[in-house]
Amino acid sequence: MNGPVILVTNDDGVRAAGIAALHQALGPLGRVTVVAPDRERSASSHSLTLDVPLRANRISDDVISVEGTPTDCVLLAIKDLLPEKPALVVSGINRGPNMGHDVTYSGTVAAAMEATIVGIPAIAVSLDRSPDGRFEYTQAAGVAREMAALVLARGLPDGTLLNVNVPNVHAGGIGGVAVTRLGKQIYEDSVVRKTDPRGREYFWIAGQSSTWAVEPDTDFAAVKRGLVSVTPIHLDLTDYRTLEALRGWPLDGLATQRGGADSGAGGGEA
């Protein structure tokens, strides 16, 4: 098929139902290739594999599995595995939302970030959980297709990606779309201490519960109302208000410090 090259990836693994739905939905828009982790890599954030070699396995003509993180997948695809640079990268459909502070942990969002860093428009798409625990990806895939078509036609500003969260509604349809900002989460019970059968302590970081600050115009507020949340995320993390404040601090003393045998990380070879 002719048309733009579109790269699809995720952090739930190459065989996840969400990426299959996304692959199919984007087919009419161009030449779609899936390059995704060989297994689940949730919460891998923007990590690269630097200490072991990576292996890629071609499952079919347009599906490749990589023994690495979502960021690895995007980098390998763009630099080597694809015959040409993609016009768009779409990451998802994630099993569960990526809103508020979760974007800093999310491998789904990180994959879109990696594409943005190398100058390719990117979208991260996630599906909210439902009370009954079911994940129905059809509506989310349709949302992803329409969003992808818009980005292909209009582009995105440099350094900006779109984080899209879709409500998990089984009946009645999606209530609309809201352009939002990131919400604020309050995490609880994020670390569980347990003891194994041999009496040794271990820790489990998983499934922490969280609550949301009740604020208008946020991704959480939109999804809770049954709306698709579209949040622009910029890679420049500089806090420009604090930048000006820091220029008023007496920082000159930092430049007078000298490394030495006892100075720790500050010391280096002459």
User: CATH topology, what is it called?
Assistant: Stationary-phase Survival Protein Sure Homolog, Chain: A
How much helical structure, as a percent, in the residues?
Answer: 10-25%
- Uncertain spans: 265-270
**Portion in beta strands:** 25-35%
Q: Quick one: CATH superfamily?
A: Survival protein SurE-like phosphatase/nucleotidase
For the secondary structure, the number of strands is 13
Identify the CATH class. Alpha Beta
Question: What spatial order of strands do you see in the largest sheet?
Answer: 3-4-2-1-5-6-7-13-8
How would you describe this structure to a colleague?
The chain has one domain (5-183, 215-257): 3-Layer(aba) Sandwich (Stationary-phase Survival Protein Sure Homolog, Chain: A). The protein contains six helices and 13 strands. β5 (88-95), α3 (107-117) and β6 (122-127) form a beta-alpha-beta unit. By secondary structure, the chain is of the alpha/beta class. α2 (70-81) packs parallel to α3.
Compact description:
By secondary structure, the protein is α/β, with parallel strands linked by helices. 23% of the residues lie in helices and 26% in strands.
Give the helix/strand layout.
Blueprint: E1 5-9, H1 17-26, E2 31-37, E3 56-60, E4 63-66, H2 70-81, E5 88-95, H3 107-117, E6 122-127, H4 138-154, E7 160-166, E8 177-179, E9 185-188, E10 191-195, E11 201-205, E12 209-212, H5 219-224, E13 228-234, H6 240-246
Parallel strand pairs: 1-2, 1-5, 2-4, 5-6, 6-7, 8-13
Antiparallel strand pairs: 3-4, 7-13, 9-12, 10-11
Helix pairs in contact: 1-4, 2-3
